[in-house]
Amino acid sequence: MGSIAVEFKNPATATLLEAAKARRTIYGLKAESPIPDEVIEAIVKDAVLHVPSSFNTQTSRVVLLLKDEHKKVWDIALQAMEGLVAAGVLPKEAYESSTKPKLEGFRAGYGTVLFFVDYDALKDIKEKFAIYADKFDPFALESNAMSQYLVWTALTSEGFGANLQHYSPLIDEQIQKTWNLPANWKLDAQLVFGTPTSGPAEKTFAPLEDRYKVFGK
């Protein structure tokens, strides 16, 4: 993929990059964990604390759900999709053959991390820097995406398989009701994880020369 062998000053750099390469989408999951729940919590807490945000606005909100609490997310998603079938929006055949098995596969995992953005927390910074006001919402999403990536990569490094899902807005209302979450927490993504039962699909790469340039070398 265009990479060459180099010697890093800090060996941890190579470890970090190898962890990034190992992070893949894994759909085959089972409800087992290779590590104690406390270690999972430590990963998520560190992401909440240390992932950067624009002007240190700290807009990401994260909920970790394990075991039976995790299953509730995908029960909610199944009910939402069944509602679409009943309303004639989603063909029943497509639901039974594709959507339902996929959701049941997520439910079969060990946990789900829910990632939210609190846009209300941006009110003061938008007023202070009004010329950039329209930029702060996208900046908040970028920070949230970094949290998702860090947690995903760290869980992979600890032996989990995981995949990232986006079922908003279909599940948002029930998610907030089920766990009594603040209304200003806006759901962005759901990271499903568990012990992998299958490997990732083959990954292809677009030509690096079309995606990367260097000047001043």
From TrEMBL:
Alphabetical list of CDD domains matching this protein: Frm2-like
Highest taxon listed in the record's lineage: Eukaryota
Signal peptide, first to last residue: none
Domain Nitroreductase, residue spans: 21-194
A Pfam family matched in the record: Nitroreductase
Record-given protein name: Nitroreductase-like protein
Organism of derivation: Aspergillus lucknowensis
